[in-house]
Design goal:
By secondary structure, the protein is an all-beta fold. It has strands spanning 2-8, 12-15, 18-21, 35-40, 45-53, 62-70. Strand 5 (45-53) and strand 6 form a beta hairpin.
């Protein structure tokens, strides 16, 4: 996959195969933060999209992986 564009509640910046979101200064209780990315398939394949969330309140990162088949 190749990152094309994205945005959300804070700016996104591509660094190679990684896309980093700038930290949010604050997120109120029960509030949501949302980011959207557009990626392009570079070949048909079974791929994994991984996300890692860090915060000063978490002892370790929260990780999520989503499997998809791209055409």
């Amino acid at each position: 996959q190749r990152y094309l564009e994205g945005g959300g509640d804070s700016p996104l910046q591509a660094e190679g195969q990684r896309v980093l979101a700038q930290p949010l200064p604050e997120l109120a209780p029960r509030a949501r933060a949302t980011w959207r990315m557009v990626v392009q398939a570079v070949e048909a394949a079974d791929v994994r999209f991984s996300l890692e969330l860090t915060a000063d309140q978490f002892a370790r990162p929260v990780r999520k992986t989503e499997a998809t088949f791209q055409y």
